Automatic annotation (TrEMBL), chains A, B:
Keyword Ribosomal protein: no
InterPro entries given in the database record: HTH_LacI, LacI/GalR-like_sensor, Lambda_DNA-bd_dom_sf, Peripla_BP_I
Molecular function GO terms recorded: DNA-binding transcription factor activity; transcription cis-regulatory region binding
Protein name: LacI family transcriptional regulator
Start and end residues of each HTH lacI-type domain: 7-61
Pfam families: LacI (PF00356), Peripla_BP_3 (PF13377)
Ligase listed as a keyword: no
CDD domains registered for this protein in UniProt: HTH_LacI (cd01392), PBP1_LacI_sugar_binding-like (cd06267)
Keywords, in A-Z order: DNA-binding, Transcription, Transcription regulation
Length: 341, 341
DNA sequence: TTGTATGCGTTATCAC
DNA sequence: GTGATAACGCATACAA
């Protein structure tokens, strides 16, 4: 695919009988270059269809002006919304985005990180895979002097910038709203306990339950059932219990879908016999019937914030700043699935 | 952020008292390097935490091993699924992905392309913005000797590899299924007429109508209403007509949602009084009530195919191959919204 | 088997 | 104002 090579500053220099370095300065509008010369160079560049090669420039500069992103799946609303926000900020700052997906696998996550290190990215934004139970891969990044920003699914065993929602507070709000609707026997379906956000959501749940002086049978709190299928498998036995839950709070919308499947299979009506509350406000949540009560994480905003953190706090900073955790406010969206009236 | 620099082959060479170029060969397991030396180099590399800098290597090689992707929005199922497929293939071929979104704007699309050219990407995969009515931006890419592969939203005024669905055939099938269900007065909500896929979907619609000897009032075919809102605005007056349509075929699921909104607003029941058929099989389509009949485009497969086209037909080829259009079979998914019984 | 020289396209430094 | 030179990190043709 090399029919002919692209024009370089050497070509422009030759045509204009000036030196390549001077062309470079002219193109970057260096002060020491007269306006008339800048003009001449620009015209010749246009004429030769010259395009600046940013990778060569970045090699020279010792940067890549590229941000790496690792997410479990790019085709889940939460992540694609977040990436969308990240892309906007990066684009506005003349940086580009290299995206990898881990498919929730720790091994693939490690490979993706390896690739990004080879690519010499300036920063890595990561939301960890469900499977990830070690911080070795993150330490690997740090070992290569690449700053890490975790978002949403953060491992607190690794110190880095983090962008998350006010998970505990909003979960507390959600469960309170269930209690206000008259639900009394509320179960919880969670995610991997290593991931802080899932622990926090559980804490919020427990706080609301405790505050209302309700009791939770030990088997009403089930961790590590993050997918629709696994939540379904967890909900079925729960809903077959003599003293079955009258509401279920889950840490993702997909899990709520699994609960709804289970309820349908057992002929249990939502919301009258069973309240359901999800998390993430996926596109489908307001479209299912009954529409799903959930939590809007403002994911695009979360992505934007993560990227901005790089540009404001790390980029062009001399030393590594003290890490920090940014909290993005989220909102409960009460819909039919948790409204008894 | 330059606390200390990363190790290079020079560092390894110095430590081992051999030449840098020899290190390079040893690391790439060149034949002329003894196994014992390879081993020594590898160990030292490991020890110094050396990471291959692929951007420097690629600069030397005159490639970037990077594919650029431009889509309207990365957070729409169809596109994120397609990108997911593209990513898989690229990752398997040791290439990385730079992703830009046009937000359906021609101007942003052009800027994204400009960025990708600067980035020196080896190929650009693009699905054009709704607004795009010129092929200038694509010619700009070609002018820079970068191969273009259009997918889904292709402009046929620009000759390039293209990957699309069997739009006409599957639309024909979809409309036939509506007719089979007894719908007789079927309207069409389309996209921009410049984009081939939308024209083809219309052609399929017309073919089925013609075959069944049904007539279509001139105002039952409405182009260029691609979003939920615009489809809603188009559907409302249509459904207020004395001789209103008893079914509507749209070229996207979001449009169908707009139609459903309109029907709900006017108290028209789906599917008994109005059949609705969408396109794309977005995640939500099987979750809405009534569930939406639609067309599964096999978008991940479509993305994979687009990427494979690059690796199989363009990458490492001496001359630009003759372009070609690849058709990905799609399938109709008949659900409640178009089933009268 | 090992090493040398050169260049990829740019920019920063210094000299004129 | 303008230009020569080195360097970014690597790979390759060529020499030994």
């Amino acid at each position: 695919m090399n029919s002919r090579k692209r024009a370089t500053i050497y070509d422009i220099a030759k045509e204009l009988n000036i030196s390549p370095s001077y062309v470079s300065k002219a193109l970057s509008s260096h002060e020491s270059v007269s306006e008339s010369m800048r003009q001449r160079v620009r015209e010749k560049a246009e004429q030769l269809n010259y395009k600046h090669n940013s990778r060569a420039a970045n090699l020279r500069r010792g940067q890549s002006r590229t941000i790496g992103v690792v997410v479990p799946h790019i085709n889940q609303s939460f992540f694609s919304d977040a990436i969308s926000g990240i892309e906007e900020v990066c684009f506005a700052n003349n940086h580009s985005l290299v995206i990898c997906q881990s498919h929730e696998s720790y091994e693939k996550e490690g490979k993706a990180i390896e690739t990004l290190i080879h690519q010499n990215v300036d920063c890595i934004l990561i939301s960890n895979a469900e499977e990830t139970a070690s911080t070795d891969h993150l330490r690997q990044i740090a070992k290569n002097k690449i700053p890490v920003i975790q978002f949403d699914r953060c491992l607190d065993a690794f110190d880095s910038f983090k962008v998350i929602n006010d998970n505990k507070a909003v979960s507390y709000e959600a469960v309170r709203s269930l209690i206000r609707e008259g639900y009394r026997n509320i179960a919880f379906l969670g995610g991997p306990d290593l991931v802080k956000i899932f622990r926090e959501r559980k804490e919020g749940f427990i706080a609301a339950i405790a505050e209302a002086n309700l009791s939770i049978p030990y088997n009403f709190i089930i961790d590590n059932v993050l997918s629709r299928e696994r939540a379904n498998q967890a909900a079925l036995p729960l809903l077959r219990l003599p003293n079955r839950p009258d509401a279920i709070f889950t840490v993702s919308d997909l899990q709520s879908l699994g609960v709804m499947d289970a309820a349908a299979a057992l002929g249990i009506t939502i919301p009258s016999q069973l309240g359901v509350f999800g998390f993430a406000d996926e596109t489908f949540s307001q479209l299912v019937t009954p529409s799903l009560s959930t939590i809007d994480q403002h994911s695009a905003e979360l992505g934007r914030k993560a990227a901005e953190l790089y540009f404001q706090r790390i980029y062009q900073q001399d030393e590594m700043p003290k890490t920090e955790t940014v909290v993005i406010a989220s909102e409960i969206r009460i819909r039919q699935s948790s409204r008894r009236q």
